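Exercise 4. Each item below gives a protein and its sequence. For each, produce the structure-token representation.

Item: DUF2490 domain-containing protein (Desulfurivibrio alkaliphilus).
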Amino acid sequence: MQIKGRWQNLLPLLCLLLMAPAPGWSRENNLTATLALRQEYDSNLELRETDRRSGWYSVLRPGLQFSSRGRTDQWQARYLLGFRKNHTTGGESLDHNFLLSGEKAHSARRQTAVVNRFYVSDDSDFGDEPVADVDPQLSPRRTRERFLLNTFSLNSRYQFAARGTVTMAYENRVLNNRVGTRDDYMRHHPRLIVSYGFSPRC
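Answer:
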């Protein structure tokens, strides 16, 4: 009988603990689907200095994006698929645009971010954002060249003073040309940045 009475006293306290908010466990998750139809006109279809020929494209672009936000971190994954139809030549192609990014606050002074971008296309402006290092230059004879580009970056930022930060970063870029004359490459960019403001902020 005495044990039963103790449980009766603990039961309301246990219920309150279970119903209490736990900000460390809560997350905000969002899943978004998109569908876009884009019309493009290219005044120099084969990227030539002379004998230019125009082209008209239709691009059907379905996309899917997932984001998750917690108290100290946030993550995002986005994938765009482009069905491209060339009405001038009758050709078709399939473009891919994938993004994965995340940020984490380890403490009030230290944060880490990671980003990975992946493209497969013959259009250096695919996905409404220019793709660096793959924009072909004009030449007497050149056509659109299909490429695969993957860019990975990681950086960690630490605030060692009220106006001072140190950032360690690394970026890796891999370009693989499926067809064409441009050279493939793999680039590594490690960086160490120390900044300090000697004068007070206005």
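Check: Residues 2-19 form the longest helix (18 residues).
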